[in-house]
């Protein structure tokens, strides 16, 4: 980040002076006699009386960093670079700064024949008592072919330049950050560094916090076991926890800067203590109401409707007595509710175990997706009227006592990908609410899903309004096979995203094997049935085994396409973009989320919207949640969501995102840019 | 299993930690008790201000940052504005005898007059540092706001600019005024804690 300052200095120079001084402090330039044409690092050299000190960028518990107010320069002036400090215990406090001499450095790039700088300085020098100092300094040196330094000044400059932290991202950083965590209610913050390979037991590095508002300057408590070094910092009492913070790490001669490290919630939350209610002020009943509405909307989704239709046909049959209908409806509702309760219980158990999961997680497992492909394929074939199997399933669903119950279970399982707009918020809250609240939301969803069906059963009048059974049903049933085929195609694509291209192959071969097995089974030559069953068994074992192994082997899913400028999710890269005040748009998406795909094709990747994003230099992030990705799960959790799509917009300079509706329209994106 | 164990240990740690942590005035927590004699010889304690708003300000006449806010009249204007609204304001000197900023009662009365102090009482003289330490006062100035329920609602710097130059005051955002105004209007306080800047309190 550099500043281009106006030239035209002549008038602003009141009294040209190359030095400044005050009590216990003398300041002079570290600069070449003649500047070269390119960038040069120069500095303010502070000579401080023994026993007195000046300050680092984070001054610590008291004191203040010096200020350099550039009034004008005939060129580009960079930000002040702060050599790493030392801890200065001053009575009951700790300061971060420098005892004795120090040089504050910055880069300049001349843009004229002379390099001229005018700057106002303010500093604070302290022993125990503090004395502020003020001054203004000018620099005026010729610009020539190459820079010419007084040897001693250049050495001084280099000495301090070596102490300026470099980004910790590079190869040279000898440690890796394994964790940064803080309990929301605690009064400490822990940073865990891991020494790199071959580190021959060097002394643990010094770590200085960049944010004096969050952490005190007191030396952190240090624990070491093997390669792991744990720093426990004391937090400023009462200071709100920030989402991220930064540190400077120094081995005593060099230093590295860790910017925008995300602070994880401490994993060691007390047993029994519930996560903070993140309903964010929304009362539980409202969330449950939203869940019920969300569940009801699921009925209209193409994933659920075919399953319900099987059941409805069963009810409309002449054999279904009116009195039996309500029972059927209630059995269906019981199936739905029991499944939701089981899913809720599972979620709570996994949550308690600290697993990072979310709604739709069942679609992040390749074997589950393969199972769904099989289920929909068989259902589609039967809907098309090719196999009796389907009729038998339908009869089973329609007639047996357990039928309605099973249909209910089925309905829940297939509804997951069709997460409706209401479900997002409700489920997001469910993962963060206390256990009873989370369960209430799950049951609310189930209640909503079952409600229309139960109503139809309870009021046969409604049912009678439905057209009488007839040949049209066969046509409708055959028609409904097509959404199922479409679902199969889509699930194959999901499988491909999960385990790579072999996913398609495995899925398609399984489908082929199933069809072939059915064909064999229908032909009454000797042993054909046994061969059919055998083939089926082998196909199942092989395909599921392969899918499972591929996913375990971590075959990388198809990389996020980046030709349109979308970057894969990287928390630190996003932090950097926010730090340089660039606008950020995050598309939380997944291959198995239909709404996401529609929004992506119709809105996000339309020419107008892409042009808008380019024009405003928006940092675009595609957070792909198709596969299990705990980082993205956590990011969603922080937004109070646990499902996709989520669209997060960070306006330039903003650190709290605006969440866009789940159904995107191009004008919503335009509105982001017209407001300012 | 390991996670469960870690969770239980962490939970136990959470229960123990607060009891060993240093006493300090923390936003959201009950304000520490105090009982100090002011320069005029009158004793003030926290109970005296129960049911009322109270601002505490740490003072050292020789600290450049105190000079910044008194020399410019900024601190006195703030004191006047809020004491006029029946908010109590106590200015505390925690400098120990022989340290910078220490004042005998008679001197303190003179300094209060010379500084046009508009606090509720002349300086509280906390020469043994008991009140300052109880509050965790680190710097001069260091500001605390206590609500009528006896809870600390703000702790930290007077404003967001740690320059010693009084010229920056008009451009600075005053945390104390913002917190008091928000509280009076029944709104939440946006910044309840900040890094107190200034000179160290000379205990």
Explain what the structure shows.
The complex is a heterodimer of chains A (676) and B (203). With 676 residues, chain A is of the alpha+beta class. Chain A has 4 domains: 162 residues; 88 residues, Immunoglobulin-like; 269 residues, no CATH class; 113 residues, Glutaredoxin (3-Layer(aba) Sandwich), CATH 3.40.30.10. Chain A contains 18 helices and 26 strands. In chain A, the strands form 6 sheets. Chain A has a 6-stranded antiparallel beta sheet with strand order 1-7-10-4-3-2. Chain A starts with a strand and ends with a helix. The N terminus of chain A is likely disordered. In chain B, the strands form 3 sheets. In chain B, strands 5-4-3-7-8 form a 5-stranded mixed beta sheet. Chain B is built from 6 helices and 9 strands; from the N terminus they run αβββααβαβαβββαβ. Chain B has 203 residues and is an alpha/beta fold. Chain B has a single domain, classed as Glutaredoxin (3-Layer(aba) Sandwich). The N terminus of chain B is likely disordered. In chain B, strand 1 and strand 2 form a beta hairpin. Chain B starts with a helix and ends with a strand. The chains are: A alpha+beta (676), B alpha/beta (203). At the A-B interface, strand 11 and strand 12 of A face helix 1 and strand 9 of B. Chain B: This is Thioredoxin family protein. Chain B: Keywords: Signal. Chain B: It holds the Pfam family AhpC-TSA.
